[in-house]
Amino acid sequence: MDRALLKEARRHGNPAFPASVYRVECPPDQPLLDLHWHDELEFLMITEGRAKMRVGTEDYDVRAGEAVFVVGGELHSGSVAGGARCSFAAVVFHADLLAGSAPDSLHQQYIRPLLDRQYEVPVHLGRMNGDSAALLDILTELFETYRRKPFGYELAVRGMLQTCVSLLLRMASRAEQARRSAARRTERIKEALEYIERHYAEPIRLGELASAVSMSEAYFCRFFKRITAATPVEYINLYRVRQAAILLRTTDKKIMDIAFEVGFRNLGYFNAVFRQRFGCTPTEYRMRGGSGA
C-alpha cells in the first residue's frame, strides 16, 4: 500500500481560518469513510447509528453521541455498524488554528508534543468521565455554531477547539500519571521478588516484605497478587520448592535438610506444597530424576 496515495488532497478551510466541518449521512450498505490520512487534526462524532472506526491499527465501536480523535498523519477509516443508517459530523483543523502570535510558547509546550505523539491521548471519546463528556458537549456546540455561522463564529470555533484539545491533554496527563504510578508500583513488586530471592531461606514476614518496598501490608498483598497471580505466601512457598527441586536433582542431601535449607520449618508442610507444585512427593521427584509435573 502506497501511503502517499491515501493522503487527502482536500484543503480544509483557508489560510486565515484553517478548519472545516463536514456532515455525512450513510446508508448501511455503503462505506462510511474510506481509508485516508491528512496533516490536520480531526474530531469525528457519530450523530446517528453506530460505526466501526479504525484509527491507526485499532478498531473502535462508536455509538451516537461518541467521537474519535485523529492526530495529524494517522490513517483512519470507518464503516457502518448495526445494520442501520449512520451519520457523523467532523471538524478537521490545522494545528496552526490553535496557536497564538509567534513565538507561541504554549504551542511548543502542548501542541507540538501532541503532533509528535509524545502524549498518549484517548482516541475513543465516550461519556466514561467528566472531561470526556465535557469535550463531547463542546463538540456538539461547535457543530451547531458552525452550522449557524453567527458573527464571530470563527473565534468561537477556535476557542472551543482549544478547550477540546486542553481536555484531551488533561486526560492524557491523567493517563500518563496513572501509567507512571503503576510502573513505580510494578518496580516495587520487582524489588519484593528480589528480596524473596535473597532471603527465601529465612523466615519472611509479610509486614517486613511490604515495608521493604514502602507499601502497607494490605495494599502490598492486593497489588502483588494482581501482578503475579499469587499471594506473597504462595509465591514464597513456590519459589522455595523450586529451589528444593534443584537441590533434589543436583545433590544427595536428605529431604529434611533440603526443606530446612530452602526455608520450610515443617516437613509435612514442605511435602504438601511440593506435591501441589510438582504432582509428586520430593522422594518420588528424586527417584524420577526430576521429571515431576
Instruction: Give the termini separation.
Output: 49 Å
- What share of residues is helical? 40-55%
Which secondary-structure class do the elements indicate?
A: alpha+beta
Spans where pLDDT lies below 50 across 5 or more residues: none
- In oligomeric terms, what are we looking at? single chain
What is the number of helices? 9
Main β-sheet description: 5 strands, antiparallel
Spatially, the strands of the biggest sheet line up as 1-8-3-6-9
Number of strands: 9
Order of helices and strands: EEEEEEEEHEHHHHHHHH
How would you state the average pLDDT, rounded?
88
| Beta-strand residue percentage | 15-25%
Task: Explain the overall architecture.
- This protein is an alpha+beta fold and 293 residues long.
- The protein has nine helices and nine strands.
- The strands form two sheets. Strands 1-8-3-6-9 form a five-stranded antiparallel β-sheet, covered by helices on one side. Strands 2-7-4-5 form a four-stranded antiparallel β-sheet, with no helix packed on it.
- Strand 4 and strand 5 (58-63) form a beta hairpin.
- Helix 2 (130-148) runs antiparallel to helix 3 (153-199) and helix 6 packs across helix 8 (267-278).
- The mean pLDDT is 88.
Quick summary:
With 293 residues, the protein is of the alpha+beta class. It has helices at residues 105-115, 130-148, 153-199, 206-212, 217-228, 232-250, 255-261, 267-278, 282-287; strands at 19-26, 31-36, 41-48, 50-55, 58-63, 67-70, 76-81, 86-93, 124-125.
